[in-house]
Structures are given as C-alpha cells and as structure tokens.
Amino acid sequence: DTGVSQNPRHKITKRGQNVTFRCDPISEHNRLYWYRQTLGQGPEFLTYFQNEAQLEKSRLLSDRFSAERPKGSFSTLEIQRTEQGDSAMYLCASSLWGNMNTEAFFGQGTRLTVV
Amino acid sequence: EDKVVQSPLSLVVHEGDTVTLNCSYEVTNFRSLLWYKQEKKAPTFLFMLTSSGIEKKSGRLSSILDKKELFSILNITATQTGDSAVYLCAVETSGSRLTFGEGTQLTVNP
C-alpha cells in the first residue's frame, strides 16, 4: 500500500459543470476525511466517514457538494454546478480509529480550477 | 467556533539558524495537537502531542505542548534549505476532525 491516493491530480472545468473526485485510503483505515485548501490557508474540514457512514459535515459543505463511501473503502466527492469559488485543492486523508488510533495521513490532493 | 492561530505567518532565515514556530488554539473537546510539513503537495505528519510538557523530538525537530496556556511550539535547529516548507498546526477535536491554522511559510536561504 503506497498511502492515500487521489484522482485526478488536476481538474480544469467550466463554471456550471459537475466534477467528481476519487480517494482511495490506506487499506486498513476505517476513517476517511475530505478537506479543502485554498492558497495561503490551512486545510478546512469538509466531511468525514467511519466505514461507510458519513458522521459529520461542515457548514462549508453546501448542497452542491456530496460525498459517498459506499462500501467503506474508496470515497467520491462530487461538486455540482461548479462556481469559481470552488477552485481549491481538495485533500483526502485517512486514519485508523478504534483500539489503536493513528494520525491522519493525507493524499496528494486534487487541484480544481473552475474557469 | 474552534480556532487555531499560527505565528509568524512567514519567516526567512539562513542555513544553520534555529527557528521557533508558534501555535495557539481555542477549541472545545481537545484531543491532540498535530504538526504537519507541506511542500506543495500532501501535508506530511511530524508530531502528535497529547500531554503537556513532554517534548517530542525527531532529529533536528522538536515540539512541546502547553495545555494550560493552550499553545505549542515547533523548534527546528541547524536549519537546512530542505526545511523550506509550510508548517501546519492542527488540533484534533472530538470526532477526530482537524482544525488547521493558516500555516507558517518557512524559507531557508543558503
């Protein structure tokens, strides 16, 4: 296992289009997180899953955003009707939670540019 | 609302200097404080701190947490150009979500 994997690495889309990103976590990790990072800022929490259950969503996550983790393994983040303000780096992280907790390991991110 | 503040926001030093990066926080349901290094890609984990006063060290890097005064520092001694990066401080709260500070952009010049 080479760590958290995100695809695509870069995405350029026209305003109003829908986009979907994929995250494959470290295989034994049961928690998966999505963060958004804009230039010069730290990552901001969007949502997280424990196995297939989405346990928390940030107020930042408008109704145009939806995330799924259908089988408790990979996750997708979809943005509908993209806006220029959605341009950012979308980071996925995973961790092990339970008897032995680990820190969050981050993927390389998907950089979204909305033109 | 949970808040993490880092200072300074940017720092330029010469190789060999020692630097201290600061992180203060105001959160509910504190679980741990983490430091990450980010070099134009994924943040990479440096330290996790849960107890006050216990220094964690890794090579030239060290960090300590003060839960009474609600802050942490990250020290880097004998800096090298490869230390140039953004250093992120994050606080883990219940539910294990991370609240990040803005980061400190460190530039080490030869």
Residues in helices of chain B, as a percent range:
under 10%
- Fraction of residues of chain A in helices? under 10%
Tell me what portion of residues of chain A adopts beta-strand conformation. Answer: over 45%
Query: Which regions of chain A have little confidence, pLDDT < 50, spanning 5+ residues?
Result: none
DSSP helix count of chain A?
Answer: 0
Largest interface, with Cβ-Cβ < 8 Å?
Answer: A-B, 24 and 21 residues
Work out the radius of gyration of chain A: 14 Å
Give the helix/strand class of chain B.
Answer: mainly beta
Poorly predicted ranges of chain B: none
Oligomeric state as shown: heterodimer
Shape of chain B: globular
Q: Quick one: how many beta strands of chain A?
A: 11
Counted by DSSP, the helix tally of chain B is 0
What does this 3D model show about the protein?
The complex is a heterodimer of chains A (115) and B (110). Chain A is an all-beta fold and 115 residues long. Helices cover 0% and strands 49% of the residues of chain A. Chain A is built from no helices and eleven strands. In chain A, the strands form two sheets. In chain A, strands 2, 4, 5, 6, 9, 10 and 11 form a seven-stranded mixed β-sheet that branches. Chain A has a four-stranded antiparallel β-sheet with strand order 1-3-8-7, with no helix packed on it. In chain B, strands 2, 4, 5, 9, 10 and 11 form a six-stranded mixed β-sheet that branches. A five-stranded antiparallel β-sheet of chain B has the order 1-3-8-7-6, with no helix packed on it. At the A-B interface, strand 4, strand 5 and strand 10 of A face strand 5 and strand 10 of B.
Q: What descriptive keywords fit this protein?
A:
heterodimer; A: 115 residues; mainly beta; 7-stranded mixed beta sheet; 4-stranded antiparallel beta sheet; 11 strands; 0% helix; globular; B: 110 residues; 6-stranded mixed beta sheet
